[in-house]
């Protein structure tokens, strides 16, 4: 059980790092001219998906906090 929680914690760290990287990339793409709206939408969608996954993993790790 501890090993599974450790791997989930590690996965959360990796996902948060990827989310932060996407934030930087989105800011960079938003400043480009001409603006590549399709790429920007795809990056934002990926970031939102990561955020949802992070929340689900956090809730799986600490289900009692919501109760």
As residue ranges, the low-confidence spans are: none
**Which strand-content bin applies to the residues?**
under 5%
The H/E string reads HH
Structural class: mainly alpha
Output the radius of gyration: 15 Å
Q: Could you give a short account of the major beta sheet? A: none
| Mass-distribution shape | elongated
Name the average pLDDT: 88
Instruction: Count every beta strand, where a strand is a DSSP E run of 2 or more residues.
Output: 0
In angstroms, what separates the terminal alpha carbons?
22 Å
Helix content: over 70%
**Helix count, per DSSP?**
2
Protein name: YdcH family protein
Pfam families: DUF465
Organism: Roseateles albus
Characterize the structure shown.
It is a single chain. The chain is mainly alpha-helical and 67 residues long. It contains two helices and no strands. α1 (2-31) runs antiparallel to α2. The mean pLDDT is 88. Pfam families: DUF465 (PF04325). InterPro entries: DUF465, DUF465_sf. This is YdcH family protein.
Features:
67 residues, mainly alpha, 2 helices
Lay out the secondary structure.
Blueprint lengths: L1 H30 L5 H25 L6
Helix pairs in contact: 1-2
Summarize the structure.
It comes from Roseateles albus. The protein is an all-alpha fold and 67 residues long.
């Amino acid at each position: 059980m501890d090993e599974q929680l450790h791997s989930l914690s590690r996965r959360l760290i990796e996902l948060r790092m990827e989310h932060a990287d996407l934030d930087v990339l989105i800011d960079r793409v938003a400043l480009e001219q001409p603006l590549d709206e399709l790429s920007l939408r795809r990056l934002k969608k990926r970031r939102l998906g990561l955020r949802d996954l992070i929340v689900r993993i956090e809730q799986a790790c600490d289900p009692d906090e919501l109760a």
